[in-house]
Amino acid sequence: MFVLAGMTDTVRINPWQFKLKLNDAIAEELNKKLANKVVHNVGLCIALHDITKLEDSYLFPGDGASHTKVHFRYVVFRPFMDEIFIGKIRSCSRDGVHVSLGFFDDILITPDALQQPSKFDETEQVWVWEYETEEGTHDLFMDVNEEIRFKVVDETFVDTTPVGPKNKGEGSEVTDQDAKRSPYSLTGSISEPGLGLLTWWNS
User: How confident is the model at residue 159 (pLDDT cuts 50, 70, 90)?
Assistant: First the structure.
């Protein structure tokens, strides 16, 4: 679930921070910059683990701040493939079941990765597993806020760095779809025995 990622960055320390120990000032700036942010192809940054190396600090003309190249390790959320999680259903749509882990919400279980056969109930706006038994078919609803056990089957990184329009008249407006793109998302599956709502397997 969590991994240590080695990183390097040049950290700017303002003059009013000189009263702090250098390591403390750098740790504060790194957490301010990275905590709860997604680094492309790395994952969701959680917290600084340690500083492994500090290079020389420099002052530049016209800037009273110090600039220090720092080598450090950061705690990052990036699940491995086929890892099992327990989350809560955030919402349902025709796209699938949207799941939250509390600190991370961009998880989607697509319709083809649900227990089969499943259908989308337009009235209730939930997915329903049509569970077949000898006595007939029972509808098992995937209600919002229910706990769900799922397996991670894919991850997607999207570079959301703003770019200027190619031509003066083109692409000057940001579409809603572009604005809503998540820089990091996971795709889950509950298509195997033992996966799905916890209440399904309790008895």
Answer: confident
Nearest to 185 by CA among 156, 151, 161: 156
Q: Which residue has the tokens 């990183």?
A: 7
Q: Residue range 97-116: average pLDDT?
A: 94
Contact 75, 2 (CB under 8 A): yes
Q: Looking at residue 90, what is its pLDDT?
A: 95
User: Distance (Å, rounded) from C-alpha 143 to C-alpha 127?
Assistant: 8
7 vs 73: CA distance, rounded Å:
6
* Greatest alpha-carbon span in the chain: 82
On whether the pTM is more than 0.90, the answer is no
